[in-house]
Write a structure and sequence with these properties.
The protein is of the alpha/beta class and 262 residues long. The chain is globular. Strands 2, 3, 4, 8, 9, 10, 11, 12, 13 and 14 form a ten-stranded mixed sheet that branches. A four-stranded mixed sheet has the order 1-6-5-7, with no helix packed on it. The N and C termini lie far apart (36 Å).
Length: 262
Amino acid sequence: MAQGINNPIIASAAAPERAPPALLADAIPGPGGVAWCRAEGLVPYVEAVAAMEGRVAAIADGSAPETVWLIEHPPLYTAGTSAQQRDLLAPDRFPVHAAGRGGQYTYHGPGQRIAYVMLDLKRRGADVRCYVHDLEEWAIRALWRFHVRAERRPGRVGLWVPRGGDREDKIGAIGVRVRRWVTFHGMALNVEPDLGHFDGIVPCGIAAETGGVRTGVTSLVDLGLPVSLADLDDALMASFVDVFGGSAAESPRRAAAACTVT
């Protein structure tokens, strides 16, 4: 078991081969020709990872459709494969889970919409960088429906909102993993989480001042928008086809250059 500073990181291993029946059982066909599922309540992280891994295996085997799972977790921190122990500032505050995805430390909790995205890249161009770019674009378009201008920043992962002057705040995190060319994990967008919970980590390893820019964390509600999780879900569903097209069989194969990845 990997160790945090004082608190052990919980390894999310030994997941079952198929998702527990209570999770992802109500996924229904939705935008883009993929199955959509919205979890009710807070789903424990280990159970969610087990469900994802089961669905990924089934998609790779051809026995389940591609899936987008909209979910919330209880308060916790996840450590990506590049996480540095020094960035875990409050190791005893919340459980810390080894995520197996790319990236560093991230907070998840109530009021944050997590989109776990399980797509078959073999049928969508087999380009991971293009896929990450598309995830970002999907979030950017969904947030723009609330007139929030989220932007990419070279060298700073995630989605950023200019706040005026030299300040930019992060509103979304991206972290993905691919197995047998099927994606899982995905992105987290802040609707109305307790922003103080981010104080226990250096989010994604990005210092509070980077390159002369002051950085922080924000949410839709923090920006003064009375947006609910259901409102964001509607925006995500409406924007999905604009970026990912129809079902995998209908989606055009695109060269990496077409994604304009920077």
